[in-house]
Design brief:
Elements lengths: L1 E2 L3 H15 L3 E3 L1 E5 L10 E3 L2 E3 L5 H14 L25 E2 L4 E2 L8 H9 L6 E2 L4 E2 L12 E8 L2
Antiparallel strand pairs: 1-4, 2-5, 3-4, 3-10, 6-7, 8-9
Helix pairs in contact: 1-2
């Protein structure tokens, strides 16, 4: 989860909407991070969520897309500012690289603002299904300065 337009408010709205869809869901703390691809924009607030579901990966992704639409995600350009960004990072050991769904997320293992919240949620021993390595093993190799836990702490 990420936002850099009214980020605290939009992350909280997204968390409420996610909790309305999934009762078995946990959220990480909120982390502040610098923009990755396009640096000339506001910093982001990010968090991760872990949930239990019987829905297929495509249906989970569609649900996330409907929440993004409801929160008016509409970046003016690729990697631009956004009200909310909800990415499906992993789904057990499922792998999909087709035009409609890419899992695991292609940059998951290279982004501190993704790894730190996942590790906080206890996913350190989760094995990246494409590379057969534990998620915690990637953290020492990502930039140190791009992610910091905030005082905002928790979404719910």
């Amino acid at each position: 989860m990420g936002s850099n337009i009214d980020p605290e408010q939009n992350l909280r709205k997204a968390a409420v909407m996610l909790r309305n869809k999934w009762k078995k869901i946990r959220f990480s703390s909120i982390y502040a991070s610098t923009p990755q691809e396009v640096e000339q924009q506001a910093s982001f607030l990010n968090a991760a969520a872990m949930l239990e579901t019987d829905l297929s990966p495509k249906k989970v992704a569609a649900t996330l897309g409907s929440i993004e639409k409801a929160l008016k995600k509409n970046p003016p350009y690729r990697f631009g500012p956004r009200t909310i960004d909800l990415d499906l990072l992993l789904y057990d050991d499922f792998i999909s690289l087709d035009d409609t769904l890419t899992i695991p997320h292609l940059c998951l293992h290279r982004r501190r603002f993704v790894l730190e919240p996942l590790l906080e949620l206890g996913a350190g021993d989760v094995v990246h299904p494409a590379f057969d390595r534990k998620l915690r093993s990637y953290l020492p190799n990502v930039k140190k300065q791009e992610c910091k836990k905030t005082e905002l702490r928790y979404l719910t």
